[in-house]
Amino acid sequence: MKKFNNLFRDYIGYILSLLVVLGYILTGVFILNDTGKNITQIIVDSFIIFILGVLLSNTMGLQGLNDGDQDERVVEQKKAHSGVLLDAQPFWFNSPKFCEYKNKTALKQERERLLNFATLSYNDFFDEDGRFIGKLIKAQGSMKKFIEKQNEAIRQACNLEITQITPSDLVTENAKPGDPLARGRSKVQYVAQTNARDIIFKIATGIFGGIYTAQFIGADLGEIAYRIVIAIILLAFGVVKYYANFRFITGENNERTKVAIQWLKEFKTLHESGFFIKKIEESARQSEEPVI
Question: Whole domain around residue 140: which residue ranges?
Fold first, then answer.
């Protein structure tokens, strides 16, 4: 028999739809009237609704993150990451050199892409160390506009800045967004970015609930019914938050771990091929001063 959280995830769309429909049906038995509350009463009621909304949304959002962490796909990926990280421990001292190699390679790839789109060759403008050795093309004649676009591509390639990875990016969640070496948002980045949007929704709901109250047609139970509607709205926000957080952990965040595993495997392969020893020897030869 499936656990409750598994059933909840499987049928979350139906649950959310049912809550929305129920809220809509309840609004059919009452009308909205201005409460006539003073500003203090409106602020107090709005604040209470806001706090309830934040607590409910954050609680369900946290549950979504936790359930995502316990998902079989995420657990297996973390086990795999721990395994390759353990394999890399004996030669971890070379991890800064590996990151330098990845950063340099990624910069070259992006520069090549920019220049290739402009029908230019990377080797005509940059040396093996990524230093600019070319010059802008003189624009004249019927090809002037096309050459200007080529020169713009050259300038962009020279000024290009990409994400730089460090050894910590192979181990922890700290990573920057954008460019070839980006792995997507970390859990901390995701929570920080989504919280601001959620608070805006709660404030709007709180103000609405503070200004208006409900009165039943021919009855005096409007306050109770309206509180139910507000609760359903806040619960719907919580359900959306839960689902979004769960999808983030099992999707984007899990992909970050997958990329880290790929980098660690590449790190091990380079180590076993003697790549870092060759780099050390090259650096030593370049630093040797001529004997006078």
Answer: 93-159
